[in-house]
Amino acid sequence: MSYKYFINALEIAKGIMDNTVFPGDTVIDCTVGNGNDTLYLARLVGLKGKVYGFDIQKEALTLTREKLMSEGLYDRVQLIHDGHENLFEYVDEEIKLGIFNLGYLPGGDHTIVTRSDTTILGIENCLKILSKNGIILIICYTGHVGGLEEKNELEKYFSIVNQKECNVLKFQFINQINNPPVLYGIEKL
């Protein structure tokens, strides 16, 4: 059977999640958005695992709560109405994975977007509680106002992450139109 490995950034991220997150793990969805990653992670962590989900928009949390309840997975998730830069106020345990989907809430207000300053702080905070061999995934969209600037600031930050502490990967399609998202991965050594 043939398998396409390079479908899109989201599918590649799912493959990484499948090989990183196991029942009983604790993970963070740093940008809940429309809830798809939160739901996916809730399935992966199983009955004894935990998902923390952050978003600054109540609309995102409401939509996600409804999805989780309809699947019977809400008891594994703690949804938090706050920015990922403040995760230390809510999470004080080791995590296996953190994921960021940058940009705006699909179907929501396109003027409410992630910003590099709070995103970098959120990543730094995730790294502090990330387990050895844990992964942080960052899916960066650039087609909106401020998206390219956020990408550029993130790459500056990633380029100075200590290679003795972390491996940082950039996965980018270079022959696709319409600003495909870039996937970054950070693995803690």
Alpha carbon gyration radius: 16 Å
Question: What share of the residues does DSSP label as strand, in percent?
Answer: 15-25%
Largest sheet: 7 strands, mixed
Strand order of the largest sheet: 3-2-1-4-5-7-6
**Broad shape:** globular
What is the straight-line distance between the termini? Answer: 34 Å
The helix/strand order is HEHEHEEHEHEE
The strand count comes to 7
Tally of helical runs:
5
Helix proportion: 25-40%
**Stretches where pLDDT falls below 50 for ≥5 residues?**
none
Structural class: alpha/beta
The residue-averaged pLDDT reads 94
Task: Describe this structure as you would to a colleague.
The protein is an alpha/beta fold and 189 residues long. It contains five helices and seven strands. It starts with 8 loop residues before the first helix and ends with a strand. The model has no long low-confidence stretch (mean pLDDT 94).
Summarize the structure.
The protein has 189 residues and is of the alpha/beta class. The protein is 32% helix and 24% strand. Helix 2 links the parallel strand 1 and strand 2.
Helices and strands in order:
Blueprint (H helix, E strand, L loop, with lengths): L8 H10 L7 E4 L6 H10 L4 E6 L2 H13 L6 E5 L13 E7 L14 H14 E11 L6 H13 L6 E6 L10 E7 L1
Parallel strand pairs: 1-2, 1-4, 2-3, 4-5
Antiparallel strand pairs: 5-7, 6-7
